[in-house]
Amino acid sequence: xxxxxxxxxxxxxxxxxxxxxxxxxxxxxxxxxxxxxxxxxxxxxxxxxxxxxxxxxxxxxxxxxxxxxxxxxxxxxxxxxxxxxxxxxxxxxxxxxxxxxxxxxxxxxxxxxxxxxxxxxxxxxxxxxxxxxxxxxxxxxxxxxxxxxxxxxxxxxxxxxxxxxxxxxxxxxxxxxxxxxxxxxxxxxxxxxxxxxxxxxxxxxxxxxxxxxxxxxxxxxxxxxxxxxxxxxxxxxxxxxxxxxxxxxxxxxxxxxxxxxxxxxxxxxxxxxxxxxxxxxxxxxxxxxxxxxxxxxxxxxxxxxxxxxxxxxxxxxxxxxxxxxxxxxxxxxxxxxxxxxxxxxxxxxxxxxxxxxxxxxxxxxxxxxxxxxxxxxxxxxxxxxxxxxxxxxxxxxxxxxxxx
Amino acid sequence: xxxxxxxxxxxxxxxxxxxxxxxxxxxxxxxxxxxxxxxxxxxxxxxxxxxxxxxxxxxxxxxxxxxxxxxxxxxxxxxxxxxxxxxxxxxxxxxxxxxxxxxxxxxxxxxxxxxxxxxxxxxxxxxxxxxxxxxxxxxxxxxxxxxxxxxxxxxxxxxxxxxxxxxxxxxxxxxxxxxxxxxxxxxxxxxxxxxxxxxxxxxxxxxxxxxxxxxxxxxxxxxxxxxxxxxxxxxxxxxxxxxxxxxxxxxxxxxxxxxxxxxxxxxxxxxxxxxxxxxxxxxxxxxxxxxxxxxxxxxxxxxxxxxxxxxxxxxxxxxxxxxxxxxxxxxxxxxxxxx
Lengths: 404, 339
Hints:
The structure holds two protein chains of two kinds. Chain A contains twelve helices and seven strands. By secondary structure, chain A is mostly helical. Chain A has a domain at about 60-155 and about 270-404: MetI-like fold (Orthogonal Bundle). In chain A, the strands form three sheets. Chain A has a three-stranded antiparallel β-sheet. Chain A has a two-stranded antiparallel sheet with strand order 3-4. In chain B, a hairpin with a 5-residue loop joins strand 2 (about 45-50) and strand 3 (about 55). In chain B, helix 3 runs antiparallel to helix 13. Chains A and B meet through helix 5 and helix 11 of A and helix 4, helix 6 and strand 10 of B.
């Protein structure tokens, strides 16, 4: 005979908050939250009281005032009569520009060096090990300064290009490498040039569509279409044809030495180059190690199995090893991208006008609004970092192992 | 029990009052050392010499204040500051005073809440160019690349000057004078601009100073002087009148060599007597000893001596007195009377 009894009713006792595992974590979290809130309140209150004692207030009105300083590296229209907020936007764009460029080149450097570190060639392997160890073990600020100093010391000044027997001359009569930056020809958009650009964009889509078609055909019927040469053809031919049909609407603006500097064309400033290059090779060394780790994380059996199926080494790498290695590579790659973005704040060392140099430097100094400027800076870097992180996490979840 | 609570409360109240009332002067006296903000290195104004000892015109002001307050010209902790960090360092109390060729402007005085105690050098912004450039006027600098120290008034003057003359330029912002010098010498910029005195000081350190010229245009007024925080008037008075003591000493002919005799006994000139504390109680009014001004002048000499030793015509920097001559010699250096 069994008697059904109700489980004994548990009465809640205060000691359960600590001794009962069901409640313990909640208790500690609540305590931590309270401590956090209290310290934030204390710091905030401290700030407000001290500001009041010093007769200062927090106000963002200064952003509307005239900035009164000039910035040479700018992506949007700006002059000394623009407002501080516009100077900040110029800085934001410059930060994003250098971070974007450096992320791309760092990835390229990193992947090449990482793959070559596993080369069978002793010399190549050791050279890459040397690159990685040298670059990642010296602070990036020092690299920025080294590269900038070398650039200003080795490359000729614009003055050297002058005269009948100039000490320096332009490469191909179009590119000038000076210690103030590199001047390259820039496009001049004539009427009808948009048609050429549209054709070019259309041909890119065409290449993607063609390759997709070739892949589908391969999977469906096993017939292998050539992809390389048709892609190259599609890339160049329609655009060049359209260029002549429209009567050469796009001209080239070749830099010319006038007065103190070259004018015309596109100038890539020395500070940008130094910062971009330093961030790229420095972070590239870290990425190389990630790539190497990722490749080595793929078991050798996979390579051997792919080889046994008759795949050539290049295809083994592209089709079997790298897709699996990416799962290991991407998460640390995200933090490397974040590091590039944050390290770009060292720009002021070479006079590159990033957000730290404009809003956190000159504006802060001229207005004396240190707290406001630093708050804005923190907000900016936090937003950008979270955005990059979110974006890369989406990518990560798209390539990570699909467990079914 | 009751008594101890009472005394405890009294101590607390006393502490509170102490914190509220203690000014910079008391802090400096208690610390036994003056924290003085200077440049990171500008020969003639403030730079460490071969023995690591700070020397220069601004350094002289720091030492004079230390001597006046503490009676010891070496009781100074020099805190190197850049154009960007100097105001934060002063506002936060990291330094007691700033003597870093800082221009007295409205917004710094009013908005940033500092008190400029006087002017120790009347300067103006100039341009330095290599001689081989063949430029004879700053108005010919259209399209030039200009090296400029960031976070300074010169940055704003530069923008104003080029805008007013409707010519263009490319700024290269740099952090310290040493960086600017390196960029300029490497030819990464065509011209270097800062206060004319700074240019002269920088040029003096070049290998071939003769290859570089200062352009005749002085594009701004740059009254440079020491400053302290707003709101601590006792301390402001100490620094102000120490500077004035150096200036008055020159005017009255009190030098570091004759001061020992002049301060031994009251002389014929009542103002000298008041200055050196042999008559009246000016030192007491400032909260200092009676011989405060004597100590200040003995630290490095009077204003004129400081000028001659550090930046004058006999030094490699070779600045003429010009505007910085005593008012009796047609300059602008003028101290209110000691009375």
